[in-house]
Design goal:
Blueprint (H helix, E strand, L loop, with lengths): L2 H16 L4 E3 L8 H9 L9 E3 L11 E6 L7 H12 L3 E6 L1 H10 L10
Parallel strand pairs: 3-4
Antiparallel strand pairs: 1-2, 2-3
Helix pairs in contact: 1-4
Length: 120
Amino acid sequence: MRPGEAEDAVVLTAWLRGASLLFLHVPNEGKRSGRTGAFLRRTGLAKGAPDYLVFTPPPLADVRGVAIELKSLRGRATPEQRQWLADLESAGWAAQVCRGWRAAVEFLESLGFKGPAIRG
């Protein structure tokens, strides 16, 4: 995870927790040894999986869940990340690339979630 993304992830995680949502962060980023990487792929790690999966149903959208690919303000989604989001949308999820924690919170609020006020 790049430095800007790491700070955004911490703020977004605090917001999600403050909103009492059922969610998880997919830890796809990071350097691993070849052996560890191979083991993780055999046990289900998938290249391009979204950073955040929210399982709490959104109040204002008839979707199964929410997927967020969190990027820095200048970050770009990879083809694998875009494919994951498209596949999740086809499966009935709300899915979006969000540049920065503010964009992620705006996306979640547009779906009807209410979370804590964040300064910054």
